[in-house]
Structures are given as C-alpha cells and as structure tokens.
Design goal:
This protein is an alpha/beta fold. The longest helix is centred in the first third of the chain and has 32 residues, at 2-33. It is built from eleven helices and ten strands. 34% of the residues lie in helices and 13% in strands. The protein has helices at 2-33, 35-56, 61-84, 120-127, 150-155, 247-260, 298-309, 339-348, 413-417, 424-440, 449-452; strands at residues 180-183, 186-191, 213-218, 221-233, 262-267, 285-289, 314-318, 362-363, 395-399, 402-408.
C-alpha cells in the first residue's frame, strides 16, 4: 500500500511538473505572438496556482502566501518599470530613396574640356561696337551652342546671356522656342534673349574652376541675375596689410553678395601679383594702397597692359582705415594727389601699360550704367568714407568705349571692411554694382576672352 501511495504521489508530481513546463512554454510562445495575450494567460495561471497551493497546504499557509505575494509583486514591479521606463525596441520606418538623374536639357553633349574654336566672322562681330545687320538665317551667324550664347549678346547689346562655346558647327545648331519680334528701325528678325532660358544648363554645373565668372541676366529684371564669381586681389611689394590693404573688405563684400543676390561670390586662393599669368583669367582685379611705394617690374607692366587691353577690369582705391576713437577724423580720406593716387596714375600711363590712353582720366558721370547695374545710385557713389575731402567722383579710363579702370579716392572699401561704418549697407550695395558692371559690360573679359582662348 505504501509503495502504491508513493507511486501515486510521484505520478502526481510528474504531472504537475509537466503541466508547469507546458504552461511556461505556452507563455513564452504567446510572448512571441502577442505580449498582452501572454500576460493574460500568465495572470490566469497565477490565480490557478494560488488556488492549488492554498488547497494543498495546511499549517503554514500564511508564510507561504506572504512569500508568494512578494514574488509576484517583484515580477509585477519589474514589468511595470520595463513598460514605462525601460528601453524598448522602437521600430523605425525605413525609407528607400532612389535617386533618378534628371533628363538632360540639351540634346547634344556639352564638352567643357574641349578648347573651343572661334572663326574670323565671330571675332569681327565681337570687336564691332555697333550692332551689325543680322542675316535671315540666324544659324549662319557662328558655330556656337545654346549655352555658348555670348555672341548673340554682343550683337544684341543690353541682353547678355553668358556661357561657354562648345565648338559645334553651324549646321548642327537647333534654336528651339525662338520668339521673333519686330524693331522699329529694322525688319530683320532677332532672337529674344529670354527665349533661350530653357536651353541653358544650371549655371552651377559650369562652376568647375575653369571659369572665374559666369553670369546670366534677365533683360526684364536687372536684379534677377545669377551665376558665380571669384574675386582676385592684387598684392605688390612693400604693401603693408595694415595701411595699404584692407584684408576683411573683399571677404565681407563677397559674403554680402551671396546673402543678397543670386551670385555665388567668393575668394579662392591667395592674392596675385601683376606678374602672375593667372590674372589673364580674372574678370576683375581689386587693388588698394595708401603709403607704399609702387615698384612694378617691366614684366608686371606688360602683363597688366595686356590684361587691360584684352577685356580686363581693374578697380583701384586709395584707402583709409578708421580707428575706434576718432573714426576717419584726421585720416585725410577723399583727398586728391595722395602718394598712391600719383603713383597709380603714373603706372597707368607708363608705355608698358596703357601709354597715352592711361592719361585720359574722366569722371564717372552720375548717369553712368555703373550706378544702376544692380541697385540705383542716382546721386553717385557713397561719400561716407571720405569726410571732409575734396574728391566727389570716381574716375575711369576707357579703352575703345569699354571701361577698363576705375580709380577711387572715396574710400569705398571702408564700408566693406569696417562693421561699424556708418550707412554700411549702402556701401556694400555699391560694391555689388561695381562687380556686376565689371562682369556684364560689353567687351569685358567675363563675356568675351574666356570663350575665345
């Protein structure tokens, strides 16, 4: 009897153990399928277990119940902490981004690496100061692509669209969406500049370091001009950065242009001397001076003369930097006949530079296009940088009708480089005018030379 009882008890224990293991496995599987279903089954199992223990035990039910309640409480506490404060596994949606290259705008390849050719007919048109008669077949003008449309800008003054030549032959050209207009003085059909807007590449695609500036103008809105420009600053021997140069001026002006225009203006590399052949690629040179003695070699003079005669633009200025206490008082800003004034003008009329053309200085009239290139300055240049001076105008040298040099005794650079300058905004706007005019005037290096070399 005893053996049979023991066997029965052992069988019951095995059955209970198997049941517990089965329930545990079921709970884990339910956790995989659904957390809340597993919790519900677990709670039900706890209830059944409590009842079974209560029914099967005698004498020590109180201590057993306390221990069990503490165990359950600990498990519940762990669950609650994990649910509200624990680090759960967050499911983040994965976005698949597929880049699809936009379809090409041009029907033929645009070869930037190929050095373009230019015919004699093109050169005659580029050098002509008056618009010639256009042929009936506009494709016979020259072998330019839709992007290399500067030639059309030259024969249609005032509507300039700058780009690079591709070397395509005339018979291969296709001018789509051309709007013909009639002018009062001629019946020849001409191409409206804005009709080519769909054919132009993104100007940023051309900013690969080969060109120093490319601008695209809107003939209906002079401020809707876009492109890029790299400023070139001239250095020379014995130039003192504290007196003859204003290191922060050009940087501040470039920043202002980027913030207030669609021109990506910047300064790349170091300053250049006139002897550096890279000045031939610069659409504009910026030079300042004060008390330094100009010592310019024959090579530098030859380079400068060649640069100016082939479409270059030089802006030179006598500068004065203000101090914290007295500002520009006592600095003799805006006074003619200063050492830099005399030396610079003597350099311009040197036979190695411009010769007799370098002595033909004239005041920039208030109606000049320079004062209306981007912002309007009907009263002329800003005068705040030259208080008490005897100079009230900018001076310029023209070569074959094109402005090649602008000289200033008005200390305009003070506006750019001094953050405390009075009416600084207006001075920075005038700096933008200088650059835009230099890059867009007919015959300038920005829209002729870089496409013909």
């Amino acid at each position: 009897m005893v053996d049979e009882y023991k066997k029965a008890v052992q069988a019951n224990r095995q059955k209970t153990a198997y049941t517990a293991v089965g329930v545990a496995v079921l709970i884990h599987l339910l956790f995989v399928l659904s957390k809340w279903a597993a919790i519900a089954v677990g709670l039900a199992g706890v209830g059944v277990l409590l009842y079974a223990l209560y029914a099967a035990t005698t004498g020590k039910r109180m201590s057993m119940s306390v221990a069990f309640v503490l165990a359950v409480g600990l498990h519940v506490g762990v669950f609650v902490y994990d649910h509200f404060f624990g680090i759960g596994v967050s499911e983040e949606a994965t976005e698949l981004i597929i880049f699809r290259a936009p379809p090409p705008i041009l029907e033929k390849n645009f070869d930037l690496a190929k050095r373009p050719e230019i015919s004699e007919v093109q050169m005659e048109m580029l050098q002509s100061m008056a618009p010639p008669d256009l042929p009936q077949d506009i494709s016979a003008i020259a072998d330019v692509s839709a992007v290399g449309s500067d030639l059309l800008s030259s024969v249609l003054p005032g509507t300039q669209v700058l780009g690079a030549f591709s070397g395509a032959k005339a018979e291969e050209l296709a001018f789509d969406e051309v709007e013909m207009i009639e002018l009062s003085e001629t019946s020849a059909p001409v191409q409206e500049a804005m009709s080519m807007r769909m054919e132009l590449m993104n100007v940023g695609d051309l900013d690969i370091g080969r060109y120093q500036a490319i601008l695209i103008q809107d003939p209906d809105n002079k401020r809707n001009i876009r492109g890029f420009f790299n400023m070139t600053i001239i250095d020379y021997d014995i130039a003192d950065k504290n007196h003859d140069r204003f290191p922060t001026a050009a940087e501040e002006l470039m920043r202002y242009m980027r913030d207030h225009t669609k021109i990506n203006a910047r300064i790349e590399g170091t300053t250049l001397e006139f002897s550096d052949p890279r000045i031939m690629e610069a659409p504009m040179l910026y030079m300042t001076g004060n008390s330094a003695v100009l010592q310019v070699s024959d090579t530098e003079k030859t380079n400068l003369g060649e640069y100016l005669n082939n479409g270059g633009f030089l802006y030179a200025e006598e500068i004065r930097q203000s101090d914290a206490d007295n500002g520009l008082d006592g600095k003799e800003a805006g006074v003619s006949g200063t050492p830099f004034d005399r030396q610079f003008k003597a350099l311009m009329k040197d036979p190695g530079v411009l010769g007799s053309d370098g002595s033909k200085w004239q005041k920039v009239p208030k109606a000049h296009a320079l004062y209306y290139a981007f912002w309007d300055f009907p009263d002329g240049p800003p005068m705040g940088g030259a208080p008490g001076g005897n100079v009230f105008d900018l001076e310029m040298l023209e070569l074959r009708g094109r402005v090649a040099v602008v000289f200033s005794d008005l200390n305009v650079s003070w506006y750019w480089g001094d953050p405390l300058a009075d009416a600084r905004e207006r001075g920075l706007q005038f700096g933008v005018n200088l650059i835009v005019y230099a890059l867009t005037q007919p015959g300038g290096i920005a829209n002729v030379t870089q496409f013909t070399q």
